[in-house]
Amino acid sequence: MLITNQIRESHERLSKTGSRFLDFVNENPESLKRSSYKDLLALNDYLFKMQPWPTFISQQTKKEIMEATIKTLQLIKKIPKSIFSNDSKKLSDYYGIPVALADRFLDGVSDEHLENLMGRGDFIVSPFAGIKCIEYNVNTNLGGIQTPVWESTYLRIPIISKFLREHGIKIHNKNLFSCLFEHLIDSTLNTFSHAIDEINVAFVSQEKKERNQQTNVDPYLDLLFKNVLAFKDPRLKGEVIFCSYSHLKTSGDYVFYKDKKVHFIIEWCFGFVPDTIMEVFRMGNVLIANGAICWLLSTKLNLALLSEHEDSDIFSPGEKESIKKYIPWTRKVQACETNYRGENIQLRDFILSNRETLVLKPLVGSGGKDIYIGKKTTEKEWKELVELAFVKEDWKDIKVERDMTQEQWNHLIENALDVKSWLVQENIESYPYLYQIGENGYTEHHAAWGFFIFGSRYSGGWLRILPKDNPRGIINSHQGAEVSSIFEVDR
């Protein structure tokens, strides 16, 4: 296949190294063979299928990515307070959720807590629209957090190491978990003003069904945490603990694991935190990432809110500029008059007559399910989808208890995911990139980028890639996309 000028320019926009890699694969036939990447492909699982070729970005591209990732999350975090004044009734009316659930989402949330959030922003880099956010997952159960394993495996692949060695290329990636631990340590030190000489972090997962569940210690992560602690201050001690909530106890206004005081909890429980621990959190005696607020901040409706308010005085001039730069035109699907590029429109008529440039998405969901790209559907299919999207659905009769169990919380969230409400968004089309395909070859792909952020700390990322001629065009692992690690290089 001929490497077109457009393809080369797409890679050169990311880095000169990426363009040099294209020449390298043309000169080295073994780089086209999937069999050359056996160790990498051994990492495949039901969620992630590895793409044999990595992606190289320059320091300038990294700077652009960092700015987009950080500024977009800052905008999203402002929504409950700036647009709704943290009023549960207003949140309930807009998001279509029970007031009691809105109360639960906001429970204990402060500006300090919002600064401790973990997330992953999903972006499309487009030749027509620049870098645009299509989704922000503000939760702790982040797909792709195993990037350090992917990266180290890429670097052990002979054909990849040959390219790096022959061209004298240095990789500048920082370990994702080092970034996370730096964030946890800095947040703890900044929050607890009194002198502390120990920091213990608990990663809390859902209770397993086995009665004799034991806590786990990951020797690698525990050692890495201790090394980051020592680098910060040699006097600091601490541990990384992996457990469920049943192993944590509250005593004297603090949270303990056995005899160790826990300073930071990372919940891997879909936002669930027991009320006993919430009491300690409200007192400011333990930090939590992320808790129930993750559900409110992760809904795609937030992109619609930002898009609708891009000229509002709610936001500063700089924030309004960021909205226009990073947020695609997005609207909640409802019978209303709104605007599109300065013109007043009737939303239903506009969606029906602009199929080629729009995307319909459910407000909640994962795996690319029920996302429809207008240009990939027929006019008949699009009309049927629009009619479906305008059917209003309310949340089921959900009883929100103050002291819920994990099982009750999971049931509540499952009911929430059953509700089909929609948004419409302008279709952002990716630059074309060249990646390996099949047993021996390469072809054009489109890409969706995932960038991690811990607090205000950009921490690397990865991207999903899908052949350009895929009939659905949804760049998601569940829809057949592969993942490629991002490598930071000089230029």
Helix content: 25-40%
Annotation, overall tally of beta strands: 20
Please give the radius of gyration in angstroms.
23 Å
Largest sheet: 7 strands, mixed
Unreliably modeled segments? 210-214
What's the short story on this structure?
This protein has 491 residues and is of the alpha+beta class.
Structure description:
With 491 residues, the protein is α+β, with helices and mostly antiparallel strands. The chain folds into 2 domains: 366 residues, no CATH class; 121 residues, 3-Layer(aba) Sandwich (Rossmann fold). The protein has 18 helices and 20 strands. Strands 1, 2, 3, 17, 18, 19 and 20 form a 7-stranded mixed sheet that branches. The chain has a 4-stranded parallel sheet with strand order 5-4-9-10. A 4-stranded antiparallel sheet has the order 11-16-14-15. Strand 12 and strand 13 form a beta hairpin. Helix 4 packs across helix 15 and helix 10 crosses helix 11. It is globular. The protein starts with a helix and ends with a strand. About 1% of the residues have low confidence.
Supply the key terms.
single chain; 491 residues; alpha+beta; Rossmann fold; 2 domains; 7-stranded mixed beta sheet; 4-stranded parallel beta sheet; 18 helices
